[in-house]
Structure formats: structure tokens, C-alpha cells
Amino acid sequence: MAAHSSGWRNRIAAWWQRRQALAQPWTAQRYVALDLETSGLDARHDNIIAVAWVELTPPLLDYQSARYYTVATAQTELNQSPVVHGLVSRDLQQVTPLAEVLHELQQVLDGAVLVCHHVQLDWAFLKQAGKAHQVRFKPLLRFDTLTFEGQRLKNSQHHIQRGSLTLSACRSRYGLPQYDAHHALSDAIACGELMLAQLYKYAGAQAVRLPRS
């Protein structure tokens, strides 16, 4: 009975802590921009090949916090993924165990805002991998730079042309430099920079809260 009461108290404390964090302006939050390279687009059947992330505390992106890991082995079925991100079997000779990377990411993400370009896809792979390795991710919120930009263009009554919501295309509208696309680390950094550009342009340093998702 005591253990049950303690569990409830911990859940209530966690809920209150999250509520207090969500009440803070967006500039007071901590962010983790993440990108995954995968062997396909189906989280149920395809594999994570590489993981990269970088931490941000507005207005700064902490490049020293950047991490990049290949987690698949050379025996992993790459399908058509080399066409997209360029990784081939020889790039997977020295890898870090996925469970080890997931546990490190779990600590980094705890209480932070997860930032991705098409967050639904990356989140699906993270949840699937976490379930397989008994790792539960608890970000404060999830922020999708792609969805933000799409909604902004829609609200401005812009026609959304094919390819106009790629990470590269979105960055170009904010005058951000172009990086080599489809490498997890450069894409994570590019996504983090885009998020800062988006929010500073449309929210500024005002005490604006992030929308819940």
C-alpha cells in the first residue's frame, strides 16, 4: 500500500513539474534537435541506422553537445537507404549498440522539447526502438519544423508546392546556409537552426509559450 501511495505521489509530482515547465516562455525551454537515418520509412519493419542530436538553449545552439552514432551493423539490410543518405555497409563496421545510444538519448531528452523535421516519423522509430530495448522517452513536447512551416504558409495563403517543405527549402526562406543533406548530424544541426529562426522571427523574445502537441 505504501509503495502504491508513493507511486501516485511521484506521478502527481511529475505532472506538476511538467505543468510548471509548460507555463514557461519558449525561450526558457531546453531543446534537442534530432535526426535519424533509417533503412526505410516503416518503423515496424525498418531499422535505425544512425542517430544524431544537438542541444539548444535559445538563443544558442550548443555545437559541443552534438552527437552522432551509427547503430546498425554491416549485416543490416539497407534496402534503398544508401540512395537517400549515402551510408553503405563499410560505414557500419564500427557501431555503437543501439541500446547504449537510446539510454543516453533518454537522459538528454528528459524534460526537453524534441525538435525534428517531420517529427512523426522520427518519433515512431524512437518509440519502436525504445519498446524493444525497455527505454521510455519523456520529452516535454515535440516540435515539428515541417508542420510549423506548412501551417505558416497555409495561414499566409501561400500555395504549398511540391518540395517546398523540405528541410533545405524551409531553411532557404530564412536565409540560412545550405548543408550537405541527408546526413543525420548535419540535418539535426540544420533542423535546430531552422527552429530558432522560425520562433525568433514569429515569436521573438516575447513570453510566448510553445503550443502543446
Automatic annotation (TrEMBL):
Transmembrane region(s): none
Organism the protein comes from: Pseudidiomarina sp. PP-1MA
Keyword Plastid: no
Lineage: superkingdom: Bacteria
GO biological process, one term: DNA metabolic process
Annotated GO MF terms: 3'-5' exonuclease activity; nucleic acid binding
Signal peptide: none
SMART domains, sorted: EXOIII (SM00479)
Gene Ontology CC annotations of this record: cytosol
The protein, known as: Exonuclease domain-containing protein
InterPro entries: Ribonucl_H, RNaseH-like_sf, RNaseH_sf
Keyword Nuclease attached: yes
Keywords linked to the UniProt accession: Exonuclease, Hydrolase, Nuclease
Domain called Exonuclease: residue spans: 30-204
